[in-house]
Amino acid sequence: MSYVTLDDLVKRFGRDEILDIAADETGDEINAETVNRACEDAAGEIDSSLSAGGYKLPLASVPPVVTAYGCDIARYRLYSDRATEQVTKRYDDAIRFLRQVASGGLKLGAPKVDDEVTSAGEVSFVPGRRAFPGGVF
Predict the structure, then answer these.
(1) DSSP state, residue 23
(2) Which candidate, 83, 59, 97, 69, places its Cα nearest to that of 9?
(3) Is the N-terminal amide bond of 63 cis, ω within 30° of 0?
(4) What is the dihedral of CA 31, 32, 34, 40, to 10 degrees?
(5) 67 vs 71: CA distance, rounded Å
(6) Residue 121 CB: number of other CB atoms within 10 A?
(7) CA-derived radius of gyration, the chain
(8) Taking a C-beta distance cutoff of 8 angstroms, is the pair 6, 35 a contact?
(9) How far apart are the C-alpha atoms of 23 and 123, rounded to whole Å?
């Protein structure tokens, strides 16, 4: 699932910064393939933490905090070995957040795998079973 897009990164960090760290061969345009790869890597890190935390994937809706931290992860990946102290700190904060979600220390408010879905008034039938032994009430 995609938690971060090129548009998210540009809105959060500005086109100039994203162009600086992910320019195409001409240097005039953002290399969408490079950015998408970083976004996929960020999604992988997020999914592994959410899965460890027992969340049902894909999320029905993405909390804004997940997108925000996903942007920090993707940005860090785009910087590669040129990451500044601030970029590294934001990445570390994102990873710390994800670890807390995985350990259950923070809740996202999203459904978990073992959450029971119930509905008032719902009836279910199990074929081959008798509700009353001998068929008599």
Answers:
(1) B
(2) 69
(3) no
(4) 170
(5) 6
(6) 4
(7) 22
(8) yes
(9) 58
Structure tokens at 21: 């760290």
Residue with tokens 């890597």: 41
Structure tokens belonging to residue 19:
């162009």
Local confidence pLDDT in tens for the 137 residues of the chain: 789 999 999 999 999 999 999 999 999 999 999 999 999 999 999 999 999 999 999 888 999 999 999 999 999 999 999 999 999 999 999 999 999 999 999 988 777 877 655 444 454 444 555 555 555 54
Amino acid at 68: A
Q: Is the model's pTM score more than 0.90? A: no
The predicted pLDDT at position 78 comes to: 98
Instruction: Name the DSSP letter for residue 95.
Output: H
